[in-house]
Amino acid sequence: MSSKKFLSKKKTSTQSISISPALKDWIQRYVNVNKGKNPKDERYKSISSFYNHVLEEIMVLFKKGKTLDDLERIEDKEIKDFFDRFTFKATIPLYEMVSEANRYNPFTFEFNTRFLLLYLDMFKREVKSHNFKDAEIFFEKIRSRYAKSTVSKDMRLEISSDKDREPTRATLEFVGKYKNLHFENCKFFAAVFGILGIQVTDFIYSPDDYYCRLELLETNLLFNREDLAKKERLKLIEENVEYIINYHRMLDDKDMYLWMKLSDDFEIFLSFKNQAAFNRWIKNVEVHLRKFGGKEEFLAKILQFFNKLHWIRIENIKNLSFRIEHVIEKEKKQMQYLLNYLSKTSKISEIEGIHYLK
User: What angle do CA 10, 15, 21 make, to 5 degrees?
Assistant: First the structure.
């Protein structure tokens, strides 16, 4: 047990230490900033007071069994409060599975407007114009949130500031623990850099190691204090995220991702190679419609199925009316599959190109 004399408030001894000029400058600025925010706070009264407070608090933590490694896991309070407004506890395996389908979907600003703008506000408060030491401190606070968490292993930012005021470059390395959640976090960081005004110039990704590296470049938006420049930032978000989700990457991935994109285009339709393939699929759909749906909605669901194949366009789902796509009318086999099936399950009538089921 430590003696009380080690925690005495009376300062009679001195302790000399050697530190780098960069660290000395960093500490000086940190103390000055906090002294300005809290003039009456004794901890920031002087550099000496700050050193004394930090060392004393660290020794108390060590006395409680904490180690230097534990300090890396301490989360900045402001960052914690900020993220806690947008996060909730979730079951990782469940969200790992759910996020798989979202893999190549863009990071939409409309859905994340408030979060991204608040992120930008926080950056502007924390980082002075062209002060990349402040940017490093800000990143370390973010890192305390993500590094060595339940979904990530570590992250590192290296800033290469140019004294001649050429645009500053940086590299972010990020290692995750779960394939799909890690990929979503890569999209998230690309979007955040976009709202801040930082351009992604390259993206290196290893799906086996859950490793990503973003090459970054400062733009004139980064320290733009006068104007939000929303359109420019939105464009940068879109361009940044494209480095993560693009057809070059998608074509090396599972087929379902391309098929999901194709399904959104009504100028494309799905065709079956033969009658057996059509029968197998329509049978699977039928079984579920009868098992989980009511008899009265069966035909409406069947129309929805053919609508999603882009074979028909539903006119009115309530009266079971639809138009057959012209391209299907020209595809004799597909047209035959459609009409033969509908004729077996209902009565078809036609008025001026619009078909009705009964």
Answer: 125
The region that residue 127 occupies, defined by phi over 0 for left and psi between -120 and 50 for alpha, beta otherwise, is: beta
Confidence (pTM): 0.71
Distance of alpha carbon 64 from alpha carbon 164, whole angstroms = 48
Sorted by where each begins, the domain ranges of the chain are: 16-68, 77-250, 275-357
Closest CA to 146 of 116, 117, 189: 189
Structure tokens at 90: 């979730």
Separation between Cα atoms, residue 142 and residue 71, nearest integer Å: 14
Written as one letter, the residue type at 73 is R
Instruction: Give all strands of the β-sheet with 198-206 in edge-to-edge order.
Output: 152-160, 169-176, 211-218, 198-206
Q: Would the pLDDT of 138 be above 90?
A: no
Cβ atoms 44, 35 nearer than 8 A: yes
Mean pLDDT of the residues in the chain: 85
Give the whole-angstrom CA distance, residue 161 versus residue 168: 5
- What is the rounded distance in angstroms from the CA atom of residue 75 to the CA atom of residue 26? 20
How far is Cα 145 from Cα 151, in angstroms, rounded to an integer?
Answer: 11
Residues ≥6 apart with Cβ < 8 Å to 329 = 335
Q: What is the pLDDT of residues 111-137, one digit of tens each?
A: 677 888 888 888 888 888 778 888 888
C-beta atoms surrounding 26 within 10 Å: 16
**Over the stretch 53-78, which tens digit does the pLDDT of each residue have?**
878 877 877 776 766 665 555 555 65
